[in-house]
């Protein structure tokens, strides 16, 4: 589905991405964990065509992406901010991509209604974005992305601005919908638990270099992810609680 080989990028002689290589199959979610400033957003922007790589190749379904402009790559880039059209209703925000593709009205009505049901947004169809909660706005953004069936979904810490419970709900929603529609995704985050929740494949980006892991166990055991130490911490808390009980 997606093949990235020897991708490199620097800004003002400062390396940001160093010889990045990985491949994704249809329906896989590569969760890339990394601290702020490690190059996660630059990687997504290069895939989306918003930045140019200094070296390396990008192929999506066998197509060389370098000469393809962003609007022709059939990708969607989701940010922390939903970036909805404030003058359009929830229904029309979700329908936007179908309308500019000149899809028939009856088909738009059916597809948007089904998507709103899937995202539990039907009762908010005629509301404006400013009448919604943060989680609801992010669901609208998600629906607008999915309805055009992108070849690749790029997620840049999309749930980072949500409260803990809403974030957990959105992670589960993403899992359910991406599996149902077999969406291929690259999901970058600085939260190890989020990476474990949403990913089917795992990577760690550190100072522009990507480490890919063959299994969940390898990802958890790598000291840089800090997952092992976090698990040990919670296990010690439970043991203390049992002992005091």
From TrEMBL:
Entry keyword set: ATP-binding, Cell membrane, Ion transport, Iron, Iron transport, Membrane, Nucleotide-binding, Transport
Superkingdom of source: Bacteria
InterPro entries reported in the protein's UniProt record: AAA+_ATPase, ABC_SmlMolc_Importer, ABC_transporter-like_ATP-bd, ABC_transporter-like_CS, ABC_transpr_FbpC, P-loop_NTPase
Molecular-function annotations in GO: ATP binding
SUPFAM superfamilies from the UniProt entry: P-loop containing nucleoside triphosphate hydrolases
Domain ABC transporter: 2-232
A Pfam cross-reference name: ABC_tran
Matching PANTHER family: SPERMIDINE/PUTRESCINE IMPORT ATP-BINDING PROTEIN POTA, SPERMIDINE_PUTRESCINE IMPORT ATP-BINDING PROTEIN POTA
Name of the featured protein: ABC transporter ATP-binding protein
């Amino acid at each position: 589905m997606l093949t990235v080989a020897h991708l490199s990028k620097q800004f003002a002689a400062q390396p940001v991405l160093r010889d990045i290589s990985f491949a994704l199959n249809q329906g896989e979610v590569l969760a890339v964990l990394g601290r702020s400033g490690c190059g996660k957003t630059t990687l997504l922007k290069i895939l989306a065509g918003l930045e140019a790589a200094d070296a390396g190749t990008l192929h999506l379904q066998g197509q060389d992406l370098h000469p393809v402009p962003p609007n022709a790559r059939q990708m969607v880039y989701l940010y922390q901010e939903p970036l909805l059209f404030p003058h359009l209703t929830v229904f029309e925000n979700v329908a936007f991509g179908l309308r500019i593709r000149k899809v028939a009205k009856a088909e738009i009505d059916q597809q948007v209604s089904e998507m709103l049901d899937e995202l539990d947004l039907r009762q908010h169809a005629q509301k404006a974005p400013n009448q919604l909660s943060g989680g609801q706005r992010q669901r609208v953004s998600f629906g607008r992305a999915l309805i055009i069936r992108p070849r690749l979904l790029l997620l840049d810490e999309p749930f980072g601005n949500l409260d803990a419970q809403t974030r957990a709900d959105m992670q589960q929603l993403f899992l359910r919908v991406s599996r149902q529609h077999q969406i291929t995704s690259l999901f970058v985050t600085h939260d190890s638990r989020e990476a474990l929740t949403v990913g089917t494949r795992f990577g760690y980006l550190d100072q522009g270099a990507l480490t890919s892991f063959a299994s969940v166990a390898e990802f958890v055991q790598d000291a840089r992810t800090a997952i092992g130490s976090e698990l040990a911490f919670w296990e010690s808390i439970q043991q203390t609680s049992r002992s005091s009980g």
